[in-house]
TrEMBL record:
<dbReference type="InterPro" id="IPR044528">
    <property type="entry name" value="POD-like_MBL-fold"/>
</dbReference>
<keyword id="KW-0479">Metal-binding</keyword>
<protein>
    <recommendedName>
        <fullName>Metallo-beta-lactamase domain-containing protein</fullName>
    </recommendedName>
</protein>
<dbReference type="GO" id="GO:0050313">
    <property type="term" value="F:sulfur dioxygenase activity"/>
</dbReference>
<dbReference type="GO" id="GO:0070813">
    <property type="term" value="P:hydrogen sulfide metabolic process"/>
</dbReference>
<dbReference type="GO" id="GO:0006749">
    <property type="term" value="P:glutathione metabolic process"/>
</dbReference>
<dbReference type="InterPro" id="IPR036866">
    <property type="entry name" value="RibonucZ/Hydroxyglut_hydro"/>
</dbReference>
<dbReference type="InterPro" id="IPR051682">
    <property type="entry name" value="Mito_Persulfide_Diox"/>
</dbReference>
<feature type="domain" description="Metallo-beta-lactamase">
    <location>
        <begin position="16"/>
        <end position="210"/>
    </location>
</feature>
<dbReference type="Pfam" id="PF00753">
    <property type="entry name" value="Lactamase_B"/>
</dbReference>
<dbReference type="InterPro" id="IPR001279">
    <property type="entry name" value="Metallo-B-lactamas"/>
</dbReference>
<dbReference type="GO" id="GO:0046872">
    <property type="term" value="F:metal ion binding"/>
</dbReference>
Length: 297
């Protein structure tokens, strides 16, 4: 009988991101999913407090991290995959692969060209490009990469036992669904991805990539990492009770047309297509990210 996965969830409040460490209790092999690198947009400084918490958890539990898994190229937080790979290679004597879906090349080329990033800095940034329904091992655990497009075209989820780590394809029931207005996003495609997830057994657990607690007199104030397929099917505010596709697509499209861009959009995309690795230094020793400006005249 296969062992039951151990799941640790750590919330990063500034970007409302859930980060996960999933481990096999027998071999102590583990993966890290969607880790965060801290960024201060006022000072333009990158720090590693969130990533170091993950490293401490790994060290305290004597895990061996075999992979760092990205669900997609995030537009709202910077990944710490590159930093974690560097630190873990030194501490455990084994280099974990940074993995993402096989369609990431389209996203890398689009934003590499937009921001003027040399192709050499992102072309082979990821160690493994995972195929749809590709099966891989975490010690004695079996994991499957499933394609869940809609929020972005390259989006993956990871099924490990009866757990689904769904990234930004679905949020908690009182938050609803993810935006679909990024390049390559599509509300109809997201609807199909959600239906795919919610056709899994009722007891399967869905671990989301973000949480934005509604708060207020009738809403919860604390972030929540996990719900079940059954809870999502019955209670998701946007997709419960088999909401018709046309109704969801119309609502989602109208809603997305009025959403502001994520606060760390430009910084996140430039570093995340590089798998969290830093830009090359100039001759003066500086490292740069490019920010577009809006001219009103």
């Amino acid at each position: 009988m296969s062992p039951k996965a151990i799941t640790h969830n750590i919330f990063e409040p500034k970007t409302a991101t859930w980060q996960y460490v999933v481990a096999d209790p027998r071999t102590k092999n583990a993966v890290i999913i969607d880790p965060v690198l801290d960024f201060d947009p006022v000072k333009n400084t990158l720090t590693t407090e969130s990533a170091d918490k993950l490293l401490s958890l790994v060290r305290e539990n004597e895990y061996i991290v075999v992979r760092v898994l990205e669900t997609h190229v995030h537009a709202d937080h910077i990944t710490s995959s590159g930093y974690l790979q560097l630190k873990l290679s030194a501490s455990q004597g084994q280099r974990p692969d940074i993995c993402i879906g096989k369609r990431v090349g389209e996203t890398q080329d689009r934003f590499g060209q937009r921001y003027g990033i040399p192709e050499s800095e992102y072309k082979d940034a990821f160690d493994q490009l995972l195929d749809d329904d590709e099966i891989f091992s975490i010690g004695e655990l079996e994991a499957t990469a499933i394609h869940l497009p809609g929020h972005t075209p390259d989006h993956l989820g990871y099924v490990i036992g009866d757990n689904v780590f769904c990234g930004d394809s679905l949020f908690n029931p009182d938050v609803g669904s993810a935006r679909c207005d990024f390049p390559g996003g599509d509300a109809s495609t997201l609807y199909a991805s959600v239906r795919k997830m919610l056709s899994l057994p009722d007891n399967f657990k869905i671990w989301t990539g973000h949480d934005y607690p509604p708060g207020g007199a009738d809403g919860r104030a604390d972030p929540m990492a996990v719900t079940t397929v059954s809870e999502q099917n019955h209670c998701n505010k946007h997709l419960k009770d088999q909401v018709p596709e046309a109704e969801f697509v119309e609502w989602r499209t109208e809603r997305d047309a009025n959403l502001a861009a994520p606060r760390l959009l430009h910084q996140s995309l430039q570093l995340n297509i590089r798998a969290g690795k830093m830009p090359s230094k100039t001759t003066s020793g500086d490292q740069f990210l490019h920010l577009p400006i809006q001219i009103s005249w």
